[in-house]
Amino acid sequence: MCKIFIIDDDRFFGEMLKHHLQLNPDYEVFLFDTAKDCLANLFMNPDIICIDFGLPDIQGDELFKQIKNLYPDLPIIVISGQENIEVAINFLKQGAKDYIVKNEHTKELLWSSIIRLKENISLKQEVEDLKDELEKKYTFENTIIGQSESIKGIFSKINKALKSSINVSITGETGTGKEVVAKAIHYNSPRKNKPFIAVNMAAIPKELVESEFFGHEKGAFTGAAERASGKFEQANGGTIFLDEIAELDLNIQSKLLRALQEREITRVGGNQKIKLDVRVITATHKNLAQEVKKGTFREDLYYRIIGLPIELPPLREREQDTLILARHFIDLFSKENKIKPLGLSAEAKKKLLAYNFPGNVRELKSIVDLACVMSDHSEIMADDISFYTLEKDSESFLDGQKTLKQYTTDIILHFLKKNNNDVIKTAKVLDIGKSTIYNLISHAETKKLNNN
């Protein structure tokens, strides 16, 4: 319901506007004869106010100022018998949303103006709701799950990081949740309404890193058809998260150091200096101090980015957090797939606690997701939980960084091999369509042919 105030000492004219607006059942309209009556009822929190310029007790411009002082964001439409351009421009400069002259078209003009304002109000509310959801999503308890002493120590470090814009360096094994921590810091900081830009160093070809970081001008190199902003420019005012920072080429390290020291960048092929206000959060699974000793990472850059160090513990050192996380992932999987949440049997709990999770939290989530699919009961049993070890280079199934699609492919291929390439049996075991397996095989064969 949109609550609208109309202030007009011409009772007949005011009633006409009120009647016309109330043709829309979503509008709740209140009519006042004087400015004082309007001010006395502002506690009702109107969504839109329509004021007459010529009022008997307080002039419209004075009423406008008093309302704006009390409620700066409240939309106000001025309705006046004066067709005075200078007066209209003055009101619009002060923040009036519209200036409507009293004539035979006033009803229609007011109707259209309120529709536009209502759309803007709805859009603004949607944006605020999204911000609230984002803030709730990235509160510590919703992102960093656990009650162990080591995780409490991480909470303490994050709280210290929120007190300033100090750079943060996050270390920890693959799958421990480094990007989750980076987002928790950004979305709980004063920069939360500005961009969070994540860059994975390992995923960018060495020759493209400088352009990705700093952008480029049109014609800077072959294929640069248009000017493009880089990740640092996109993150201005917010946070840039440089994941796998240890993979950065030494040549680019020197350019990154210069940008951080001078707090400005220049696009590739350009001369314009762009000022930076960016918080830098880095992450790596390597020991940067050792990389400095080996000569693969610049010592001066190391001291520039180290800031507040946060080391994430592996899951095997987080006591009972394994079961807390498992419960969280079961509930999350159930919600996303619209199924009834499953329980976790005593034997299943023992099996999870006995495993050391080389892939950490990421591996636990993948295992739990599959267990939810495999379960035929109201709770996950021990037999529903599978730990995979790939034969290739004796690596754990979940070592390294993969997408969920890649993990799914590995699981399907594992069961195909186990079932002697029997597609029907594999589809039944995994409770998936045969077409999914055939498409996978077809894609693999095509890729193999292309590689040959």
Automatic annotation (TrEMBL):
SMART domains tied to this protein: AAA, REC
What Pfam families does this protein map onto? AAA_lid_14, Response_reg, Sigma54_activat
Q: Its GO biological process terms?
A: phosphorelay signal transduction system; regulation of DNA-templated transcription
Sigma-54 factor interaction domain sequence ranges: 144-373
PROSITE patterns named among the record's database cross-references: RESPONSE_REGULATORY, SIGMA54_INTERACT_2, SIGMA54_INTERACT_4
- GO molecular function ontology, one term from the record: DNA binding
Q: Which residues form the Response regulatory domain?
A: 3-117
Modification 4-aspartylphosphate, positions = 52
Look up the domain of life of the source.
Bacteria
Q: Which keywords accompany this UniProt record?
A: ATP-binding, DNA-binding, Nucleotide-binding, Phosphoprotein
Q: Which InterPro entries match?
A: AAA+_ATPase (IPR003593), AAA_lid_NorR (IPR058031), CheY-like_superfamily (IPR011006), P-loop_NTPase (IPR027417), Sig_transdc_resp-reg_receiver (IPR001789), Sigma_54_int (IPR002078), Sigma_54_int_dom_ATP-bd_2 (IPR025943)
Name the chain's protein. DNA-binding transcriptional response regulator, NtrC family, contains REC, AAA-type ATPase, and a Fis-type DNA-binding domains
